[in-house]
Design brief:
The protein is mostly helical. The chain is built from ten helices and no strands.
């Protein structure tokens, strides 16, 4: 990639991020359905037509926020050069200390509110599956197949294992949406302990 192309790509990503951040602010105040692309564009200090150079529509902005959040939490480029399933899961669910922590926390609050939309709206639900769920399942199935061949993972169906991993994560989000006081008021230490338990318990069950 040339320097010019690289700068252009970074500029596009910066503007997309600014639009997403503007959307998060508006949605936090008005809710997703009441928010318009015109309001998002005004918040991002650009013309509404300019916004459409970077996103197809409001749904696309929402899905991109979800993808940004997921990419912060999961490394889908995770290597299979590991000696145990626990090591693989630790790398997959990385503790990302990147500079965009503020964006991540804002995205988390929005997605916590919007998860019911993904579950009940047919259009959003389809987009969520295609852009968030399916890529995760596909990558994990490929990686688990390799780990089975290396005799690290037990001989379970990788399609079943990938869905167990995904559904267990969604379960924590649902608990938070349902205002489970333990999850809602969890300290950083408790969340880290939960993460360790998740990896160890699943790892012991899946590994050889």
């Amino acid at each position: 990639m040339s320097d010019i192309t690289d700068r252009k790509a970074k500029r596009i990503e910066r503007i997309r991020s600014e639009i997403m951040n503007a959307a998060v602010e508006i949605i936090s105040l008005k809710g997703f359905k009441s928010t318009t692309t015109k309001e998002i564009a005004e918040k991002a200090e650009m013309a509404e037509g300019t916004l459409y150079n970077y996103f197809k529509n409001k749904d696309d902005i929402l899905m991109s926020i979800a993808e940004r959040y997921v990419s912060f939490k999961r490394d889908l480029n995770v290597s299979t050069d590991v000696s145990s399933i626990q090591e693989f899961l630790t790398a997959l669910y990385r503790n990302n200390n990147a500079e965009n922590m503020k964006d991540h926390m804002n995205d988390r609050e929005i997605l916590k509110v919007l998860l019911p939309e993904f579950l009940t709206d047919k259009t959003l639900g389809k987009m969520y599956f295609e852009r968030i769920v399916q890529p995760f399942l596909t990558v994990i199935e490929e990686r688990l197949t390799i780990l089975k061949e290396k005799d690290i993972v037990c001989d379970y169906d990788v399609k079943a294992l990938s869905r167990i991993l995904y559904s267990s994560l969604i379960g924590f989000a649902v608990l938070e949406i349902n205002k489970d006081p333990v999850i809602v008021n969890a300290t950083k230490e408790f969340r880290e302990e939960t993460g360790r338990a998740y990896i160890e318990v699943l790892g012991k069950g899946m590994g050889k």
